[in-house]
Amino acid sequence: MCPLLFQANKKGEIPLHLAARYGHSKVVTVLIDCAKALPTDPESGVTEAKKMLRITTEEQATALHEAARHRRSHVVEILTKEDRPELSYSANVHGETPLYIAASSWGQEQEKVIDEILANCISVLDYGGPNGRTALHAASAVGDHVEVLLECDASAAYIAETEKKRTALHIAAIRGCIDAMKGIVSGCPACCELVDNRGWNALHYAVASKRSIVFKECLRIPELAILETEEDDKGTRPSI
């Protein structure tokens, strides 16, 4: 049965990908144990189990990508612990790392997924999404997981997208995620000074959210309130 461990379907998926997707943690463990029983490659020194964990599909997704996307926290725990400490992030064809995928949605199970990845992997806040976005950008869009990501690497708050140059704070503001904004400002107050490619600061984005409550809450935050007199590239100040 061992040769079947690496048998891929038309999408490039091996059994481990499918077991991870559907959350079959016992099957995942059995597949990894079977791979461990195979001889190690004498040239590379890499075990067959390590090779299996890193095999990608046509979309360059590993089993960890699948587990993260489908919120399989138990599987994520198994996969990350098996490949540590060497495991770093690889992006799929869409430019998404497992952490970016996990941070893109919210929920108790998703929080467990993020915790496992952060606990067991390196390079946790790499440029994990399309257009230069990080996992913090993704978390800010849904208003969750922000604090734990900042605790891991506060520098992510200062990273802007490649094209529009929006930071995680900008994203949180346009989405009206007030708690996420407070978390970012509390941990990284200097990031409030950053503007996008139009010269918009976070307060401009709060106005663009078209939610007066968001703008009013921003004015309660001293670091954001002082931006009310700042002009964008067209000389427009943020106001409702």
Automatic annotation (TrEMBL):
Record keywords, A-Z: ANK repeat
InterPro entries the UniProt entry points to: Ankyrin_rpt (IPR002110), Ankyrin_rpt-contain_sf (IPR036770)
Domain of life: Eukaryota
Protein name: Ankyrin repeat family protein
Signal peptide: none
Pfam families: Ank, Ank_2
Organism, scientific name: Populus tomentosa
Start and stop residues of the ANK repeats: 11-33
SMART domains per record: ANK
